[in-house]
Specification:
single chain; mainly alpha; two-stranded antiparallel sheet; 46% helix; globular
Length: 338
């Protein structure tokens, strides 16, 4: 299957969101193009969109039952302790606050809607987005300075059309002023794990902030962005620093969708390429790994997805339109670099 055939596959009408994004992002078709307009108009009736809005609560949240261990983690992140429950079977629901469950609570779902092509022009999206954004702390944080949360949210809100909102700028300012010796990002919960040395940054949180910077061309020459880029290029994108060929963790070896708090191979290459670093020789191993994910027809395979997510990308181990879209976008931006 050649490139034209793969594009034809992505343009099939079974998934209007992928069709819309292929037309606009891969093929650079304008918003007033009739095919673009038709694809976008079909998105609200798609299976993923209908599934998501069916689960939306009247107050603009998406909620999920979580384990007591999840409650404990987030309580500790806020400097407290988990409440005692008489029974292990006690139902505990997350979604109304900034604590989150396994890929189906509010901030994840807002990101899924952005991936599908929704923005604040949809009143349901605007209601949910405004309610969640109202929970932001004065310094732009959402919870325990989790970079995997505020970096993720910055990207989501830009995609939803909130770039000019001062609250989004507060989170961007937090990202710009958060300094770490190795150039990456971490959360408060793990920052003080050692008494005599600085803890290593988190590849997952650093990937979310990298994706946020990829949406912010006006800050890509900022020293903090350059430090983060060096954090990734210095490790070949996905490897342990000083150990070429040894992946940081299992996440970075896999093609994944939707984008969540983990750190997938495709999203790292996509973000670096979009910022103009895709041709850096140090990324050769990561690009080779990505190319190994193609089937005999040149389509990219889905290695992993969160089963709890309300956006259902397809089956593991099979050619996947979402993964292929992001892989082709990464290569497009790489090849545009002078």
């Amino acid at each position: 299957m050649d490139y034209y055939s793969i594009i034809t596959w992505l343009l099939e009408k079974d998934n209007p969101s992928i069709r819309y994004r292929t037309l606009t992002e891969l093929l650079d078709r304008p918003p007033d193009d009739p095919e673009v307009a038709a694809a976008r108009a079909a998105i609200p009736d798609s299976k993923d969109a209908q599934r998501i809005f069916k689960k939306m609560q009247p107050d603009g949240t998406w909620r999920q039952k979580v384990t007591r261990n999840t409650v404990r983690i987030f309580a500790e992140a806020q400097g407290g302790s988990a409440p005692e429950h008489k029974s292990e079977k006690t139902e505990i629901w997350f979604g109304q606050g900034t604590e989150y469950g396994n890929y189906a609570t509010t901030h994840f779902v807002l990101a899924y809607l952005a991936e599908l092509g929704f923005d604040r022009s949809d009143p349901r999206v605007a209601k949910a987005a405004e309610r969640y954004l109202s929970l932001q702390a004065p310094d732009g944080d959402f919870l325990g300075h989790f970079s995997c949360l505020y970096g993720y949210n910055i990207r989501t809100y830009i995609l939803l059309g909130y770039r000019g909102d001062p609250r989004v700028q507060n989170s961007i300012d937090l990202m710009l002023t958060t300094e770490r010796g190795d150039g990456g990002y971490l959360c408060d919960m793990h920052a003080d794990k050692y008494k005599t040395k600085e803890a290593k940054s988190c590849i997952r949180g650093s990937t979310k902030t990298l994706l946020a910077f990829a949406e912010l061309p006006e800050y890509q020459d900022h020293p903090r962005c350059k430090q983060l880029v060096d954090y990734f290029l210095g490790r070949g994108g996905i490897y342990k620093r000083g150990q070429p060929g040894v992946p940081v963790n299992h996440d970075v070896q896999r093609t994944t969708f939707p984008i969540v708090w983990r750190a997938g191979l495709t999203e790292i290459l996509y973000a670096l390429s979009r910022m103009g670093y895709g041709k850096d020789a140090r990324l050769a191993g990561a690009w080779d790994l990505l190319e190994s994910k193609r089937d005999e027809q040149g389509r990219y395979i889905l290695d992993w997805f969160p089963t709890q997510a309300l956006l259902k990308p397809g089956k593991k181990g099979e050619p996947n339109k979402w993964v292929t879209l992001y892989a082709l976008l990464a290569k497009k931006y790489r090849d545009q670099t002078v």
